[in-house]
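1st attempt posting a full record on here, be nice pls
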Amino acid sequence: MQISGALTCQHDIPSSPLAQRRPFAGASLLQRQKQSTSLRASSKEDTATESKPASDAAKPQMGFRWDGTLQRWQTDKRVGAQVWDNVPMMETKTGGNYVIWPVVWQTLTNAGLKSVDAEEAKKLLEGGAVMVDIRTPDNFASERIPGAVNVPLFVPVEGTETFDRIKKFVMATAFAMQATERNKKFAEAAAEALPKKSQQIIVYCNRGGRLQTGKKGRRGTFDDKDLSFGIESRSLKGCYELMQAGYTNVVHLDGGISTWRFKKNPTEKR
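the predicted structure (as tokens):
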């Protein structure tokens, strides 16, 4: 997707297979601009918009692009200057808009987001922390960590427009999955479930994801192109959105509910 001007943008990993993926370069941020300036760009699903300049502390250290062949984000010195002044936002045809993954990764990395394992999470819970399940309401209802509250980052597609119907049909017939979209009311749902923004929050999804970009080997840690921006996950995106909404004590559950269950920790089921 080509955009007029100096910026070439691309969707982060979408919730629908209908999204069009093309090369992209971008930046990072700590705060979004309240009023985004639209760029001249379009695809079948998304439109990119330009938002607030990043603070000096949040500006990225490298350019990046989406590799459609390998289906992953990659660093690329040829695209993107060392300093980016605006943050690409994705404006979707269904659900809420969102910031692309490399920007989320850069922001969380700069902020020093901490990931905790199951044992450390249990200690935090004993001290009054709250588990936040970022998964869909159906996933939460079927199985969850005891005491968790549900603040879904994605919700079922509710619209009845042509694109909504196509998305529902494709996901149901081709993937046997429920079509979802970004939750437009995520911040409101968080405020209702978590009224105290200074409270310790532990965020989890199915698999957790990671911010680390290297792999450990016999001779130490080495760079891995597959991990240029860690491993993307909904829980990490949820941490980003909660921090953007003003929550000041957010940590991430390493491995998500899958690892929690594998370690023989209790879960609740319907």
